[in-house]
Amino acid sequence: EAKQRGKGMWALYTDEMGMRINDEADLIREMSTAVDEGQFTLEYQPIVRLEDMEMTGVEALIRWHHPTRGRISPADFIPLAEKSGLIVPIGRWALGEACRQGAAWRQAHPQAEHLAIGVNVAGRQLRSGTFVDEVLKVLAETQLPVANLSIEVTETAVLGDQESTDAMLRLREMGVRLALDDFGTAASSLGLLLTCPVTTLKLDRSFVESIITVGRQAAVATAVSQMANALDLASVAEGIETEEQCRLLQELGYHYGQGYLFSRPVPPEVLAGRWAAVAEASHFPPPFERL
Ligand code: C2E
Ligand code: MG
Ligand code: MG
Ligand code: MG
């Protein structure tokens, strides 16, 4: 019903976050000035090559430090940002910040030379019509090589949408890596793999969570890994929390892993400190020295 009233009527949408509608409207208003007021930061979570436990990438994850409400989880405000359109300026900030950080790391630490910087991008951003140009501009401004950038999109964000597919094709031509995030959770995924020029599949955390105890989850994880290999895509397993899960995913042929077992998302200085302290600091030797 709210939808029929058209744009700008976001306050009438039903509540998805357990908040009252007025709270939602307040939050959106507050979110609209949060970039300018410097309330967002990025944390970075290591992505580890399972073959040798080398940290080959990081994923940038946004954090909102609200002046009165405290820390708000992206799971709570990203959906509202998407709904209101604010994801476009917020996402633009996140892309710029992550590329600036990646370039600074490369300058300061030889271990970061080939580090892949993963940036989450919402469907709405991808479809904005200016996204590819923004990426070009940010890479030029920050001097981050295109090979160091990896864009993460979800299946639902790109499903059956020509504009996003076109944007992704242009990004691929430029040499940007493209990861399909939360893979396996959307309604359909297989046809998408043929039309959508991704380089990487990220198996959703929900499959990893019960991979040891639920045979059906393990079966899906196996199929995704085999499919990635058959299509010549890289595979990442998200949400690895135990060594047992890690070992199994390794056996299933996953190339990369990400999860609390290796590290939680951390502020950028933590990674810099680690690289500065030890030459081999991007290595996660078993039993997985934690950050
Ligand atoms: P995502 O892109 O799938 O990111 C992975 C999420 O899983 C992160 O949650 C991360 O902290 C969490 N995670 C990683 N390893 C583990 C683990 O071992 N166990 C558990 N329980 N969780 C783990 P986070 O940081 O709360 O972000 C949630 C989602 O918010 C992200 O999911 C992404 O969809 C979205 N998001 C975050 N930053 C941005 C951004 O800059 N732009 C956009 N559009 N979306 C973002
Ligand atoms: Mg992601
Ligand atoms: Mg994910
Ligand atoms: Mg996820």
TrEMBL record:
Residues 24-279 form the EAL domain. It comes from the Bacteria. This is Bifunctional diguanylate cyclase/phosphodiesterase. It comes from Kineosporia mesophila. The chain holds residues 490 to 780 of 780 of the full protein.
